[in-house]
Amino acid sequence: MAILEPFALAIGFLLSYVYDFTLSYGFAIAILTVIINVIIFPLTLRQTRSTKRMQDAQSDIKKLQKKHKDNKEELNKAMAAMYKEKGINPLGCILPLIIQMPIWFALFRVLRDPLNFIPSSSVLFKDLEISTSLTFFNMDLQIPPSEVSEWIDRIPYLVLILLVILTALYQQQQITKKSGKSDNPQAQQMQMVGKVMPLFFGFISWTLPTGLVVYFLTGNIFRIGQQGLIVRLDGREEVKNEEKKEESSENTETNPIQENPRKNRKKRRRK
Questions:
Q1: Higher pLDDT residue, 263 or 35?
Q2: CA–CA separation, 29 vs 238, rounded Å?
């Protein structure tokens, strides 16, 4: 696909640049994954908070569903207006996933045909010319696990796929624990998609270049830490908001509204 050509060339350049420092194909892919996830972190943070706002708006959603239970068109309009007002994106939980898809396809092309996308002046290009494959923990990163002939040689590949599934499941558990169950059909669908995705990634990892599976695993580990960071940041903001509310309520109690001095003088004159 011609549209992926610029992405593949960019990925090839970054991969070769990182490889010059690490001299490890696997670690270069892992570091590249971290760089990409750091770049899209602001978007991920925004979408995570959007998902939380959807959970906080459940009571309003139920009211709208009750009010427009006999008119689906009006319900959809009211829901759309509420989402816009509260800054909610119903597709927030999968948007970062969609954005990364061109990167996956580009990395797939680079791993399958690296000499066409990696700069010829780089160390990685020269190493690939000398060796037909570059290994990482005894795994050839350019071929999929399904192409490994001996079952004993497939063990590290199977362990890698298992780690992808387990980290994805843990990541989904983080999100579900934070947001809780929802009565909103759209939110329920998104949660169902989130439960299926770990198994889906495990399945496709069997037929994808192993380097891409390393990308999946590193991304999962990064997002687990990222989710913990977001929870901490949001927790601090909630604590600050609560402290502000307590301070304002204390100020109201200790400083009752005083009467206007002019009114007091008028009252004294009348007396």
A1: 35
A2: 37
Answer positive or negative: Cα dihedral of 111, 114, 117, 121. Answer: positive
- Domain residue ranges of the chain, discontinuous segments joined by +: 2-244
Rounded Cα gap, residues 192 and 189, in angstroms: 5
Do 214 and 141 form a contact (C-beta atoms < 8 A)? Answer: yes
pLDDT in tens, 97-111: 777 888 889 999 999
pLDDT in tens, 149-189: 898 999 999 999 999 999 999 988 877 665 555 555 655 66
Query: In this predicted model, what pLDDT tens digit does every residue of 140-151 receive, in sequence order?
Result: 999 999 999 898
DSSP conformation letters of 105-140: HHHHHHHHSGGGTS-TTSHHHHHHHH-S--EETTEE
Tokens of 200: 């889906």
Q: What angle separates helix 210-254 from helix 95-112, to the nearest 10 degrees?
A: 160
Residues 113, 28, 46, 88, Cα dihedral to 10°? 40
* pTM exceeds cut of 0.90: no
